[in-house]
Amino acid sequence: MLRCAGEMLDESKTPLRTAGILATDLLQSLVTEYFAMTPRATAIPQLAMLVTLTTFIAGTGYLISQQVLRMSANDPQIQLAEDAAGRLAAGENAARVVPERLVDMANSLAPFVIVYDDSGRPVASSARLDGSVPAPPRGVFDFVPGDAPEHFIGESMDRFMLITKDSGVVIRPWLQAFAWRTKTYSPKYVEVQIEVAKQKGGIGFLFWNANNDYSKPYTAMPEMRAAKGRYFRGDEVGVKPEPPAATPIGSAVAPVSPSNASVETGLAPSGSDSAPRAQKIWRH
Description:
Strand content: 5-15%
Distance between the termini: 106 Å
Radius of gyration: 37 Å
Structural class: mainly alpha
Number of helices: 8
Number of domains: 3
Number of strands: 8
Helix content: 40-55%
Shape: elongated
């Protein structure tokens, strides 16, 4: 049967059409043979279950592929926004952050960058709509990602854990130690970042503040240290026991009669040879 089908495809001028005809004929033959060999009382319910299962599997595969495609379509815009935010945080001018090429939003689907100030007014833009910089809908800036550290720290950690999976690397995140695009920066804000980073697999953490103002992390530290394993793994804090001082062997201590006296002993000769042996130096 397979040999015959192969010869038909080789001799056909339209192999794709011929393959479709063969597949249809095979399916019809299987269904006819199935009904001929199976009682009708059980054949129809089994066939209905088979069709339902096949439809469900095909539909699930289609939905997954569409979701993956839709999510990946956001990657260029997300990367542009993250790069622009990083450059702005480093102190770069907003006009230099946005791309030079202007995008007409009415005629193009190309990604663009618009920088707004804290009051929601546009500062720089690479997009135009009807000849002017588009204004965001009212209420867009009432909630900004900076007010949800558990979101952007968690998302970042998830991405890096996926990228570095099975590599054995240690992920130690930089955490925000300044009030960038947030009105809720506080010791609690610091605690949330550290807790989420630990929950997501981070080993330790680093803070950064351009003005070297670490008052908020410093204020949060006593409470976090008191919470045992909630914020730290346990081996980052605490004082390691000091090793016991070595007992001097063969030391000679000269008696001291006056107070505040300083007595030093040098090298004493060894009984076996002429080589000097080091002596302990005592100061009182």
